[in-house]
Design goal:
Layout lengths: L2 H21 L2 E7 L18 H9 L1 E3 L2 E2 L5 H10 L3 H4 L15 H7 L3 E7 L11 E5 L9 E4 L2 E4 L4 H16 L6 E6 L38 H4 L4 H4 L24 H5 L2 H23 L5 H37 L5 E7 L18 H4 L3 E4 L8 E3 L3 E2 L3 H8 L14 H6 L9 E6 L11 E6 L2 E6 L4 E6 L17 H17 L5 H11 L2
Parallel strand pairs: 1-8, 1-9, 2-11, 3-12, 4-5, 4-8
Antiparallel strand pairs: 2-10, 5-6, 6-7, 9-10, 13-14, 14-15, 15-16
Helix pairs in contact: 5-13, 6-11
The chain binds calcium ion (CA).
Calcium ion binds next to loops.
């Protein structure tokens, strides 16, 4: 072949490679912490308006059956990165150390030419790998004047955490982005994680609103495993005077309130602290007077605690929503929106008073659910709703697939790209998801459990007491009665047990050593 022809082929190849690099979509993965389904108005408008997060649903796809594989912070994050269940990726509970050698989707994107960054909550112990840039909160991080760990050491930024994580994200897009390469930016908020500290501009938001109580707030846990009543995440009995209820001074009622201090007050500037006192002192004094008078019933005290908890939680959500808006506006202003996939999700859901609880961990719907909204202009039909059963094991394969990177066989999830392109679930899709939680006893005494959820039923196995629980989500959406011993459900129980075993087989679950180690450490 003549030399000139070879050169021509080489140059055409270069042009082609260049064009495909530019065509590959940018990805912004916005990850909240403990964001419940009911606190996103695209899912449920009753509690709060989240117009900016809702934009992603209006302009993209809303997943209505999106679940986590293990409802706790670190494990969900490890699953998102690896596309693997906890028993495979090794990060089974908070306190594990993420193995930096593991294959993750950011590392694969980076190796394929993406510029990668993670800003905000990491919570996986080891130093982030596969990222060109990282600024991460140490551990759980702080709401006020948060510290960030970077490759150059620890830096403190003055302000409110949710705003700062967005400032740093926009700053990276503005100043550090290489325009010749597609990018992955993971913007990961601390909010609305406990202890739900609102931004000064939101301290009085909802102050005059009565937040509706969920129908299961006074759940007596009858008809289900006794683990529920031994659980320690109830609003009534497990919230702390300062840390959760934001009440001043020493806890005078140790029989009702836990005694943890509120470390955020100690981080505030004098101006932030003054604003806080101005917003909360009158309300706090009125509550403490009523409580001290002895005239306040237990039910009234619970009602007050629920309102205090929910208002602070929802105020944190509003700040997240405003900051999603800031990021979307930036994409619009710079023209990046067109070729950027924006994902909004949270590591798991949260109890907003359902079953009398806060926190997560259980396989019940409120904490099993992960919000998932995906906008990809020109690919995902606007306003589409997908009811297929999807899980956080699918996030890594999906984003690799979208970037044209081969999904490694070790990833256990599947790409959601066919669903995203079609605008709905395909005819044939998985009909069940697998779940496992190992972090016992931790602070909330939630037992080790695993299970399977199908479209209609949920089966849960508690190895410590060797008992099954079965829920019919159609007739009992709030999961208030286990029908495992109801003869009318005998065939369903058998069928669900087979599915459970089949999924354990599919995902190579051999978790007895994990369970043994957890129980040995717990001294049980
Ligand atoms: Ca979380």
């Amino acid at each position: 072949m003549p030399r000139a022809m070879l050169w021509l082929i080489f140059l055409l190849g270069l042009l082609g490679a260049h064009a495909s690099a530019q065509d590959r979509p940018n990805i912004i993965y916005i990850f909240a912490d403990d964001h419940a389904r009911r606190a996103i108005s695209a899912y449920d408008p009753e509690l709060i308006a989240t117009p900016n997060i809702d934009r992603l649903a209006h302009e993209g796809m809303l997943f209505t059956r999106s679940y986590c594989a293990n409802s706790i912070c670190g494990p969900s994050r490890a699953t998102v990165l690896t596309g693997q269940h906890s028993h495979i990726n090794g990060f089974t509970g908070n306190g594990s150390e993420f193995d930096p050698k593991r294959t993750t989707f950011p590392r694969l994107l980076h190796d394929s030419g993406y510029q990668t960054a993670i800003i905000g909550k990491w919570h996986l112990g080891s130093t982030p790998q596969g990222f060109d840039h990282w600024e991460i909160l140490p551990g759980q991080g702080s709401y006020f004047n948060p510290d960030f760990d970077t490759a150059d050491g620890r830096v403190r930024h003055e302000g409110y955490c949710t705003d700062i994580i967005t400032d740093l994200s926009i700053n990276w897009l503005e100043k550090a982005r290489n325009e010749g390469r597609p990018f992955l930016l993971m913007t990961q908020h601390k909010a609305p994680h406990r202890n739900w500290m609102s931004a000064p501009r939101h301290h009085r938001l909802l102050a005059d609103t009565d937040i509706p109580e969920p129908p299961t707030l006074l759940d007596d846990y009858a008809g289900r495993t006794r683990w529920l009543s031994r659980n320690a995440q109830s609003i009534d009995g497990d919230m702390a005077w300062q840390h959760d209820m934001k009440l001043p001074g020493e806890n005078p009622y140790p029989e009702v309130f836990k005694g943890w201090n509120n470390a955020e007050w100690g981080r505030m500037t004098p101006a932030q602290l003054a604003a806080w006192h101005e917003a909360f002192d009158t309300e706090n004094e009125a509550f403490m007077r009523a409580l001290g008078s002895g005239a306040m019933s237990d039910r009234d005290r619970l009602a007050w605690m629920y309102q205090r908890y929910m208002k602070e939680y929802l105020r944190c959500v509003v700040a997240v929503d405003e900051n999603v808006g800031r990021l979307l506006d930036y994409l619009d202003r710079t023209g990046l929106a067109e070729n950027t996939i924006v994902v909004y999700s949270s590591d798991q859901g949260f109890y907003l008073g359902e079953h009398g609880w806060f926190d997560k961990r259980w396989m019940f719907e409120e904490s099993l659910f992960m919000p998932l909204l995906v906008r990809w202009p020109g690919v995902v039909p606007p306003g589409s709703v997908c009811e297929a059963l999807v899980q956080n094991i699918d996030h890594a394969p999906t984003l690799l697939d979208a970037a044209g990177v081969a999904v490694p066989a070790e990833m256990q999830g599947v790409s959601l790209l066919p669903l995203l392109r079609a605008g709905h679930g395909p005819e044939r899709w998985r009909d069940a998801i697998y779940y496992a939680y190992y972090m016992y006893p931790s602070v909330h005494h939630v037992p080790i459990h695993s299970g399977v959820r199908t479209d209609r039923y949920k089966l849960i196995w508690f190895p410590q007491t060797r008992e099954w629980q079965l829920f019919d989500l159609e007739s009992d959406p709030h999961e208030m009665r286990s029908v495992h011993d109801d003869p009318a459900y005998a065939h369903v129980l058998d069928e669900m047990k087979s599915r459970y075993l089949a999924l354990r087989d599919l995902y190579d679950v051999d978790d007895q050593p994990i369970i043994d180690a957890v129980l040995e450490a717990a001294g049980k």
